[in-house]
Amino acid sequence: MRSFKSIGIKTQLGAFLIASLVFWGCSSKSNSGLGLDEVNKPADYWYENMLKAIQMKNLEKADSYFKSLQGEHLHSPLLPEAMLIMGRAHMQEEDYQLAAFYFDEYTKRFGNQENIDFIRYLKLQANYFGFAKTNRDQQLLINAIKEAKEYGQKYPYSRYRPMVDTMLLKLELAQLTLDKAIIKLYEKKDKIDGAAYYQEKINENSWIQDVYHKEAHTPWYEQLFLW
Question: Taking the CB of residue 87, how many other CB atoms lie within 10 A of it?
């Protein structure tokens, strides 16, 4: 009886070890797919693999390679360019929040008098297109308008100033449209104070109403989810 028990225990242990090896093997393959189990590589290795991942439109993998580049080669001359490339790549894939994050990080680490107006312009683009995608994100719109106004004050002679001014005008028109929609909502709910507050906001910027524009049209199937 003891011999059979011993054989049974050994069999169970063997099965457990085999299962463990299979599990860790699969786990290793899964991690290697994202470059997570690779360490101590030269900077150009991470950079080139990041570019390949972007070409394959696998930004999750590209982010992983970038993190490895930054983690192992914090002072590499490839890092500033890689950071900008990642920001632009996320913009192309309409992931504007992550794009803005990369541009912010670039500004903190590598911003200088020669490039700061360009980097802040890219950040404004990310906010601008991000609002158009998320639709009715009021705080994002307010932040984008604030940053666009600050841009004009800080960099009045920048070559990107005309594009920023155009974005600012469109953002303020979007704010006008949004405020009008909120007023209608409050009026339907008989919330007079709320409607009066937003009407006062519109009156404070009455000049924007004189700008020729077409009112934004929201399809009926989107309206079902907006309010």
Answer: 24
